[in-house]
Amino acid sequence: MKYSSGPQVPTMPKDGPDSVEVRSRVGDARQFSPSAARNCGPIREVLTRVLPKKGIALEIGSGTGEHVICFAKALPGLVWLPSDPDSASRASIKAWSATEGLANVRAPVAIDVREGVWGVEDDAPFDAMISLNMVHIAPWEAALGLLAGAGRLLRPDGVLVFYGPFMLGGIHTAASNAAFDADLKRRDPRWGVRDVDALVGEAAPHGLELLELVEMPANNLSLVFVKVGPAAPA
Question: CB–CB of 164/143 below 8 Å?
């Protein structure tokens, strides 16, 4: 997933945030992410507990496609619609899907969450949406657009899950997260580790309420929102 140009190379040790790094590929369009291999299991545990067992799930910023394959295997009753604005990432998702041959993974689509129309409206309402390691490597407007889109496109009681490094009450949860945040801002001043309170405040007008905050390995968090009411009129 890319919303801004520039190199994506690892700057943090493995006990720190694991979301900006070099990807590798072997022989075809499939990309391999070391962090996806590390965090797939813990994220899968959360998703299998909080997501519905059937319906359609939209992933925002699917990256290499390794995550959606992992989750589609664990939740076979859900149809998964991956998305990414980056063409190389979409090619990787297609290649992973072709290799694994999962019937419940659809072809990836291009979504820029900052747009008012995502091009997936005919598939809505969605039963679930997930966005992993995205909001800190994109402008704040992308987080706002994602929340607005979830308000528009999730069904009542639909679930939205974020995963990544976050601040709590304006304070980093670990020194490595603070260093990572500073590094992100050096790369692009529009990037940065987001505060949970800021997301909760921006989610409320879209009928989204924070249901659960789950501590994850490597100083990350999973945020589980639920659609509890209609979005406020624009």
Answer: no
Closest C-alpha among 226, 169, 220, 223 to residue 198: 169
Q: Phi-psi region for residue 182, left (φ > 0), alpha (ψ -120 to 50) or beta?
A: alpha
Residues 6+ apart with CB under 8 A from 45: none
User: pLDDT tens digits, the chain, 234 residues: what are they?
Assistant: 544 333 332 223 333 454 455 566 667 899 999 999 899 999 999 999 999 999 999 999 999 999 999 999 999 999 999 999 999 999 999 999 999 999 999 999 999 999 999 999 999 999 999 999 999 999 999 999 999 999 999 999 999 999 999 999 999 999 999 999 999 999 999 999 999 999 999 999 999 999 999 999 999 999 999 999 787 665
Q: Cα dist. 64→13, 67, 90, 108, 120 in Å?
A: 21, 8, 8, 11, 20
Q: CA 34, CA 63: separation in Å to the nearest integer? A: 12
Q: Say how far apart CA 180 and CA 47 lie, in whole Å.
A: 26
